[in-house]
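Protein: Sarcosine oxidase subunit delta
Species: Aquamicrobium soli
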Amino acid sequence: MQLFPCPFCGPRDEREFHYGGEAGNLRPDGLDISPDRWADYLHMRANPKGATKEIWVHTTCGEFFAMERDTVVHTVSGSTTLSEAEPRS
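Structure follows.
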């Protein structure tokens, strides 16, 4: 069993979480989007080996958050709320 750090509830069993997708895969805006761009959004992923940032949901509290983890050794380096994860201007 692995513990995932929910920024709202603290460390919890990994079975309480559901993968939401890679961070930064923003939905295209507008009705005139090309079929190729829409297909890229739906199906193309970076799938990095090593450090990555992903969106997860803690199914117990229902909150979405960003988690940084290593896909090779399965270590989690941290998690932040989505408002903290957004770049500030």
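Remarks: The mean pLDDT is 91.
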